[in-house]
Amino acid sequence: MKKHLRVLRELMRLRFQKLMMFRLSFLGPFLVDGSLFAVQLLVFSAVYANVDTIGTWGRGEMIIYIGSFSLLNAVSMMICFFGIVMIPDKIKSGEMDLYLTKPVSPLFRFTFENMNPGSAPLVIMSVLIIAYGVLASGVKPGAGRIAGYLFWMLIMQLLYYDMEVLMRTVTFYLVSASKLYQIEEASLDLCMKLPGIAFYGIYKVIFYFILPYGIMATLPVQSLVGELTWQTGIAGIGVVAAFSMLTAFLWRNGIRHYNSASS
After folding, report:
1. Over the stretch 57-94, which tens digit does the pLDDT of each residue have?
2. pLDDT in tens, the chain (263 residues)
3. Strand partners, 57
4. Using only C-alpha atoms, what is the Rg of the chain?
5. b (16+ CB within 10 A) / e for 140-155
6. How many CA atoms lie within 13 A of 257 on its CB side?
7. Residue 223 and residue 201: Cα distance in Å, rounded?
8. End-to-end alpha-carbon separation of the chain, Å?
9. How far apart are CA 230 and CA 30, in angstroms?
C-alpha cells in the first residue's frame, strides 16, 4: 500500500508538471467537458420539455439522474479515463512492455498516470445539478438516504470504471475492437438520456445485466428518493461484483498471454 501511495504521489506530480508546461492541456479538457455538459442539458430540455413523468419519476428526479450520470462521467474523466483509453494503443504498439517492467501493476499506472484536473469544474457543476434536482423534486432525504445515495454512487463509479477497463481489455484478444467502442458510446449516450426505469423486457436485460449502463445512475437516484427495493439492491450489487470479477479475470489472463509487438 505504501509503495502504491508513493507511486501515485509521483504520478500526480509528473502529471501536473506536464499540464503546467502546456496550459492549453489544462484548460482544453475543461472547455470540451463543459461544452459536452451544456449539450447534455440542452438535449434534456428538448426531450423533456413536453414530458411530465417517466414511470414514477417527475422532472426533478430526472434532473437528479442527469446530474448523477454526469458526475460519474466527470469523476472518471478527472481520474482515470485518459489513461485507460490508451490501453489499446499501448498493446498494439508494444509499449505495454514498458509497463510490465515497472514495479507496480500496469493497470494501476494506466488508471492514474493521466489524471485530468480540468474536469474538476464539471464535477462541481454536476453536484449543483443534483442539488437543484433534489429541490425541484420536493424530496427531503434524510441522512440515511443521503448515505445510501453516496454508497450507490461509489459502487456505480466502480462499475463505470470496470466497463471502461473491460472494453479496452478485449484488445488483448481481438485485432480490432472499434465496433465494441461504438456500442459503448451508443449505450452511454442512450443511458445518459433515459433512466433504467424506462427499460422493459429485453431492453432491461441488456442495459441492466449485459451492458449495465442503465443501472449506473438509476439505482443511486432510486435510493435517494426512497424507491429502491432490497431485491433491486441485491441484484445491483451482484452486477457490480460480477463485472469486477470478470474485468479482473480478463485483465490478468490478457497480461499472461500478451505477446510483445516487438517480439
Report:
1. 988 898 899 999 999 999 998 888 989 999 998 888 88
2. 555 556 556 555 555 555 555 555 555 556 666 666 676 667 666 666 667 778 789 888 988 999 999 999 999 988 889 899 999 988 888 888 888 888 788 998 899 888 887 778 889 889 999 999 999 888 888 999 999 999 999 999 999 999 999 999 988 888 777 888 899 999 998 898 889 999 999 999 999 999 999 999 999 999 999 999 999 999 999 999 999 999 999 999 999 888 765 54
3. 54
4. 19
5. ebeeebeebbeebbeb
6. 12
7. 23
8. 33
9. 38
Place of cell 488508471: 111
**What 3-state class would DSSP assign to 53?**
coil
Cβ–Cβ < 8 Å for 57, 65: yes
3-class DSSP state of 209: helix
Identify which of 205, 225, 223, 226 has the alpha carbon closest to the alpha carbon of residue 214.
Answer: 205
Task: Write the pLDDT tens digit of every residue in 170-200.
Answer: 888 887 778 888 999 999 988 988 899 999 9
How many CB atoms within 10 Å of residue 139?
A: 17
Please give the single-letter amino acid code of residue 210: I
Look up the pTM and report it. 0.87
Cβ atoms of residues 126 and 74 within 8 Å: yes
Q: Which residue has the cell 451492458?
A: 211
What size, in residues, is the chain? 263
Phi and psi, residue 240, nearest 5°: -60, -45
Alpha-carbon distances of 219 from 2, 104, 135, 175, 188, rounded to whole Å: 34, 34, 19, 35, 16
Quick check: 105 and 98 in contact, CB under 8 A?
A: no
Hey, what's the cell of 120? 474538476
Q: 161 is written with which cell numbers?
A: 470504471
